[in-house]
TrEMBL record:
GO terms for biological process: regulation of mRNA processing; spliceosomal complex assembly. Keywords: ATP-binding, Kinase, Nucleotide-binding, Serine/threonine-protein kinase, Transferase. SUPFAM superfamilies: Protein kinase-like (PK-like). Transmembrane segments: none annotated. This is non-specific serine/threonine protein kinase. Pfam families: Pkinase. Residues 60-417 form the Protein kinase domain.
Length: 421
């Protein structure tokens, strides 16, 4: 949904600070702040000028900024309409930009969330889907902003590894979460007929282990609010998504961010670009038709990020160090062998001609990695029977032909998920 700053992504830049709230924000001499104003497409006129301490829609008082993306900012807020004898209620408030495209995307997410909410289903996977609780519109200097309200969640699943002192989530910890994710995907695919299209580690969020974590965090933010910088008359706050150490256990994992989700009905056909580049399914790269199984490939590829904070297919050209569709396809060919002719026949003609000859031969054989680029070598974070079962598990997901991939329901009972090393 929004940007969490991994340590490697942070860079230093000095900003002068201004008072961004009443009472005045405590200033710091040379803070390192990298927020939405550093995006190449940043337009301050589109973002709502939210301020810590501001009450939105006479109900939600902003406590801190949790993150941002190209189309919105996200804030932890407190419901001020609660009676004195009631426990505190906090929400995650996503304030979308006022541009037409941003509003269209947000309304699309709200429609999908509303559709899922209204479904009468006893499917266990429903518990693992993050839904919008409320929507409303506020007015900014340049137009209307749609606000989406969610129950707050702690952090993305990949951060569990950092809490546990490892570069990835340990397999024994990850496996139960994966089973929950597969249940959620099966619910989306089999009952909701929805394709998520954007499965990445930032979109698997875990809940709070205890309400006191939120209460303590809120008190800390109120006593020591985040610094901010004036940017063309708009306050840009430093994000504070860290809720501290894990006290005991964790909450449920939920699949989040349905801003790019689409219907997967029988009569619906898709071939537009989807998915983060490293996780693109072959049919997406080839601009062929895709369906639910694109999510399965996506999940299989993201396992390397979850388990080892690494990437299976980076698609990086060694010369330019930039993403290349040709390199991405070459990496797939090394791991899976040549793509089947029937898949190439369904590809977009221009993309096919760019990558393959009329006889189906890959035009860039020099880009195919050496034989050392293989699944066992790319999985050094596992060993023994655990590794063997894992590779069989991902082999059911990472297949050229979309129809040959296992479904989420079939993967739920895979032996690797129940194996304890």
């Amino acid at each position: 949904m929004f940007v969490y700053r991994r340590p490697s992504a942070i860079f230093s830049r000095q900003f002068s600070l201004i008072s961004c709230r009443n009472p005045a924000t405590r200033t710091m001499p040379h803070p390192f702040i990298r927020e939405e104003n550093q995006s190449p497409d940043y337009d301050p006129k589109k973002y709502y000028p939210a301020r810590v301490g501001e009450t939105i829609s006479r109900r939600y008082r902003i406590l801190s900024k949790l993150g941002w993306d190209a189309n919105s900012t996200v804030w932890l807020s407190k419901d001020v309409t609660r009676w004195a004898w009631q426990s505190n209620r906090y929400v995650t408030l996503k304030i979308t930009n006022c541009g037409k495209e941003e509003q269209r995307s947000a309304r699309g997410e709200a429609e999908i969330s509303g559709y899922i909410s209204e479904m009468k289903s006893s499917h266990q996977g429903r518990a693992y889907i993050r839904l919008i609780k409320e929507t409303f519109t506020i007015h900014g200097p340049q137009g209307e902003h749609l606000c989406l309200v969610y129950e707050p969640l702690r952090e993305p699943l990949w951060l569990l590894g950092k809490h546990l002192g490892s570069n990835g989530v340990p397999p024994a910890v990850l496996k139960p979460f994966l089973k929950s994710i597969l249940q959620g995907l099966d619910f989306l695919h089999s009952e909701c007929h929805i394709i998520h299209t954007d499965l990445k580690s930032d979109n698997f969020l875990i809940g709070f282990e205890h309400p006191s974590v939120l209460d303590d965090y809120a008190r800390q933010q109120e006593s020591d609010p985040a610094p901010c910088k004036d940017d063309s008359g708009r306050p840009v706050f430093q994000s504070r998504p860290d809720f501290g150490y894990l006290r005991k256990g964790v909450g449920l994992v939920q699949i989040s961010d349905f801003s790019a989700a689409v219907s997967g009905g029988v009569s619906v056909s898709h071939n537009h670009d989807i998915q983060p580049q490293p996780f693109c399914a072959p049919e997406v790269l080839l601009k062929s038709k895709w369906t639910y199984s694109a999510d399965i490939w996506n999940l299989g590829a993201v396992l390397w990020e979850l388990l080892a904070d690494d990437t299976l297919f980076d698609g990086l050209d060694p010369q330019s160090n930039k993403y290349s569709r040709e390199v991405h396809m070459a990496q797939m060919i090394r791991l899976l062998g040549p793509p089947p002719p029937q898949l190439l026949q369904r590809a977009d003609q221009d993309v096919h001609n760019q990558l393959f000859s009329n006889q189906g031969e890959f035009k860039f054989p020099h880009l195919i990695p050496s034989e050392e680029f293989n699944f066992p070598n790319l999985t050094p974070f596992l060993d023994g029977e655990d590794k063997t079962l894992f590779l069989r598990f991902v082999e059911r997901m990472l297949r050229w032909e979309p129809g040959e991939r296992a479904t989420a329901r079939e993967l739920y009972d895979d032996p690797w998920l129940d194996f304890r090393a």
